[in-house]
Amino acid sequence: MVRQGDRISRNIDWITVSLYAALVILGWINVYAAVFNPDSHPSIFDFTMNSGKQLIWIGAAIVLIIVLLVIDYKAYDSFAYLIYAFTIFMLLVTLVLATPIKGSRSWLVIGELRLQPAEFAKFATALAVSKFMSNVDLQQQNWRDHAKLSAITLLPPLLIILSNETGSALVFGAFLLAFFREGMSPIILIIVAVVAALFILTLIFPKFYLIGVITLLVGTYLWLNQRLLRKIKLIGLLYAAVVVIIFSVDFLVSNVLQPHQRSRINAFINPEADPLGDGWNVIQSKIAIGSGGILGKGFLQGTQTKFDFVPEQSTDFIFCTIGEEHGWLGSMLLIVLFMGLLTRIIFIAERQKSVFGRTYGYCVASIIFFHFLVNVGMTIGLAPVVGIPLPFFSYGGSSLWSFTILLFILLALDTHRKQDLSRAI
Question: Which has more pLDDT, 145 or 326?
Fold first, then answer.
């Protein structure tokens, strides 16, 4: 046991651990700031408030870290599919037995403890995806392998969508970045990006105006590159597909999306249209962040925070607390910490000697990047409000534990990279 502890302390990536610790501690302090009340709850250690509860989650996360590092690293590869299967089972149990909370059947309530299996499905899917990809070669473009990989990746978000938790389901699209690193054709990424862009543009601009601009661009490009006229049939099919996508957006929004999802899209497109309703969160969030200026109003001095103008400010909108109380400099510091963490994770992924370890590392980076990008984006009005937490920072045990497990499985794999190297040699 002593030798194992020495090995872990020598080989673990302390830079990543330090970045993790900084984000968790800063998150805890800002959770306290978001719920601070000088009259009824003045202490950060008040265990009836979110800050005190978050401290309990942090203590439990430390225990999780120790367990994750002590477990034989081979277990993560060997039991990847079993962990994935258990998570699928928990999602099914949640779908059947969970009590709806704010319209979502995504929480299992056990006494005072509330767990969200959708959060844990992210690291379980990352393990299963990494296990599968360690045995195939995506560069061979085998459709059966792609079908199996798609099934592994899409099953959890489908179950999560059925529980009415769309935001958590969207995160699984981030796995495309890991697939691309392992040889998946970039065409798939391009198609996804184009469809997403067309969806957003159709919501913002009139359909016929958008089609006219696209027609002009395509016509101009063909006129400048007349050699492409030999592929006019393919170009025609692509053009027709674009037109179909544009005209299908209204049907999708009106007949497929649920009312609360439509309201979030409307708030994203034009929050001022309903400033006291759908647009309230985004408007108040931007007011809070903008009012912080360069240096901020000071710790515990945020008026938007203190008077509860921004809902869910200790969870989904915690970035507002940073912007209001610590200003542009505090916001930039947080962004730098996340960018440093993501850069370090990619560095760790690239130095793995196994496909399993490298793929898992990119899955970790992709999930954290997606959460960070969307969470910060929705607080400043650049992304729709989809209700996903800021990793390691937002209040919540399920979120903190799932991201801790996600990250420290990678660090556990990384502590054995030298053993993998010696076997490779």
Answer: 326
